[in-house]
Write a structure and sequence with these properties.
With 406 residues, this protein is α/β, with parallel strands linked by helices. It contains 17 helices and eleven strands. The structure holds iron/sulfur cluster (SF4).
């Protein structure tokens, strides 16, 4: 699974010339091929008298953490959900809306059954009555693939008809926030909930709900089949495991790069074929716009969970965007805030008004840095969810690391 091919400009051009305009379902591994390599054997074993505690220990010993961005230990989450009385539900968060993130799509368009088996294993572990897959509508090929393969699973008798429900998102970034996603699954407007209670206690239709990101689940399937060593045996810069970096920007080979979790931006640029000719590395977004921008001088930080917090940011879903000397950090930060202004659900004032105000202030020739800092602190302190709380990161990091531009 470590082989990653890339849609290089040449390949895309050749595909278009051949009349292949992406309006089709890509070649992917179907049920029969997946089973031929041992797929669903682990699930069958577990259903036949397996011990969920043992599976939880295996997942914990692999060090698997939530790859949607929060990084919460997956096995621990299972324990929280199980601690609450059933019926329980499972929801797969496939609303991959973080700009620059495309790893879930990448995997689902190639090996959808890895995620589906991981999902069924997690559902078995928490005794979920129904699995909801919330998939963004901007991924039509993925929706089609999942619809086909869920049907194949039903026909093969691996799941009962109706056990997996496929839900389509409708283009709102905020529905990737787990409690907003749950509201949306319930048929309501996607607005984040206050916590506590956490969704592990009060989730879909007030039932305990296990929410996992797509990529997290495919690792569950792989860990059970191949052993926790597939993650624990990889070590770099004192960090263990693998990370799927979605890499874009001024590099020669943008795409999903599966690298050791302790990789730095220098390693990632190298894996992505280096900088575009004639462009010098200037800055990078380590994990989506919520993570803001870091300068090229900070290129030796392992881009893994917990490593970026001391620098006022985080790895999130590992959406790395590389900027060159042809880019403006200030313009990039403004673009990020425009995105948040657009995508704020509007439920709370610090975020709804704060994002709009920040965009206005950032359009001034010279930023009013004191006012922007005051606004940032208010948003961090008083916003309901992560969108409003993290939106100030691009403002603060740009003021700190690119003072000449603001
Ligand atoms: Fe909605 Fe923003 Fe408040 Fe989150 S912080 S609940 S996105 S208004």
């Amino acid at each position: 699974h470590n082989h990653i091919d890339h849609a290089t400009p040449e390949k895309v051009k050749a595909a278009i010339e051949a009349g292949d305009t992406h309006a089709h379902i890509p070649q992917y591994q179907g049920l029969a091929a997946y089973q031929a390599e041992g797929g669903y054997a682990e699930l069958a074993k577990l259903r036949d008298g397996g011990d969920w505690k043992q599976v939880q220990d295996t997942v914990l010993s692999a060090g698997l953490r939530g790859l949607g961005g929060a990084g919460f230990p997956s096995g621990t989450k299972w324990g929280f959900v199980r601690a609450n009385e059933g019926p329980r539900y499972l929801a797969v968060n496939g609303d991959e809306g973080e700009p620059g993130t495309f790893k879930d799509r990448y995997y689902l368009e190639r090996t959808p059954h890895l995620m589906l088996e991981g999902m069924l294993i997690a559902a078995w572990a928490v005794e979920a009555e129904i699995c909801f897959i919330y998939m963004r509508d901007e991924y039509p090929a993925v929706l089609k693939i999942l619809a086909n393969e869920i049907k194949a699973l039903e026909e093969a008798g691996i799941v009962d008809p109706g056990y997996i429900e496929l839900r389509r998102g409708a283009g709102a970034y905020i529905c990737g926030e787990e409690s907003a996603m749950i509201e949306s699954i319930e048929g309501k407007r996607g607005e984040p909930r206050h916590r506590p209670p956490f969704v592990a206690q009060v989730g879909i239709f007030n039932r305990p709900t296990l929410v996992h990101n797509v990529e997290t689940l495919l690792w569950v399937a792989r860990i059970l089949r191949e052993g926790p060593e597939i993650l624990t045996s990889v070590e770099k810069n004192g960090r263990k495991g693998l990370r799927s970096y979605s890499v874009s920007g001024r590099v020669k080979n943008p795409g999903v790069h599966l690298l050791p979790a302790g990789s730095t931006i220098t390693d990632i640029i190298e894996a992505a074929g280096g900088m575009l000719d004639g462009q010098a590395f200037k800055a990078y977004q380590p994990g989506g716009p919520s993570s803001g921008l870091l300068p090229a001088s900070m290129a030796d930080i392992p881009l893994d969970f917990d490593m970026l917090q001391p620098h006022g940011t985080f790895i999130g879903s590992a959406a790395v965007v590389v900027l060159s000397d042809q880019d403006s950090a200030r313009d990039a930060a403004l673009n990020m805030l425009r995105f948040f202004e657009d995508e704020s659900c509007g439920q709370c004032t610090p975020c709804r008004v704060g994002c709009e105000k920040a965009v206005k202030l950032m359009q001034a020739e010279k930023w009013d840095q004191n006012l922007l800092e005051e606004l940032s602190q208010t948003m961090v302190d008083a916003s309901i969810c992560g969108l409003g709380q993290a939106a100030p990161n691009p403002i603060r990091l740009t003021m700190k690391h690119f003072p000449d531009e603001v």
